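Sample intake — sn-glycerol-3-phosphate transport system permease protein ugpA
Collected from: Trueperella bialowiezensis
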Amino acid sequence: MTTAPLARTPRRNRRKAKEIATAWAMLVPSLIGVGLFLMVPIVIVIALSFFRWDLISDPVFVGLANYSSMVDSAGFWNSVWVTVKFSVFAIPGAIVIGLLIAVGLNRKLPGSGVLQILYVTPWVAAPLALGIIWSWLLAPSGLINDVFGTRTAWLADTTTALPVVAFVYIWQNVGYISLFFLAALQSIPRDIYEAAELDGAGPVRKLWSITLPLIRPTTFFVSVTSLISSFQVFDLVYGLTDGNPGYPGGTTDVIAARIYNAAFSSQQIGNAAAMAVFLMVIIVIITLAQQRYFSSRMTYDMS
């Protein structure tokens, strides 16, 4: 009577081993891609941050000298401050507007499908091309000034340049954000809202007590990805400033542009690598802080 279970055990073990082997076979291509295109470049950049190299002569080990010059650079800290201000301008606005658009699209009014395509089109377009087009629109003789009847140099004024860049960033990314929120809204069971309505909850109460808590996982994802994107913004700024990130007066000198200029304009690969490592550490710290904030406030079970 004990032979049958014993006979099934080797068969079960073989099946389990086969499932594990299949899982690893499916994971290996992704692991190779992550290793070659993510982990290896990170290791190389960290290593280069300890060298002085101009892409031509042999690298020279300088230890922490690149980090020391980075910390002592007023221009570098200005870039950090500009990037932080840009993120503060852009991320909350993009998330709030994206959520409002998603709420509107979730009503499934006529033409919603066309609107979804229109909203997401800027996100799939090349940021550099969008930056150039918007620089034409925002020129003193451009369409924007013609509409308002002014001749304002939006991108040449130190008070308006960065907010305008943030506005274009929001315009480009709001469709991408709204699609994620729309998917989250459509996953909320309708009977939850019906029960709230029976209890007398109005639209604002339902939004605050039901919708926002249940879409926190999506809010976390959108916040993290948007923050990373905003700290790495470069091509959009490059296009808007006609290839002169920082103009005017350093007000658009985002950190990614400073890294680019250090590496390919000044041939200071070590300094650029040190700044890239600093940027990576800051992004990781902020992401972990966001994860800790949302982890105890997220709900995945909507049954």
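Post-analysis note: DSSP finds 13 helices and two strands in the chain.
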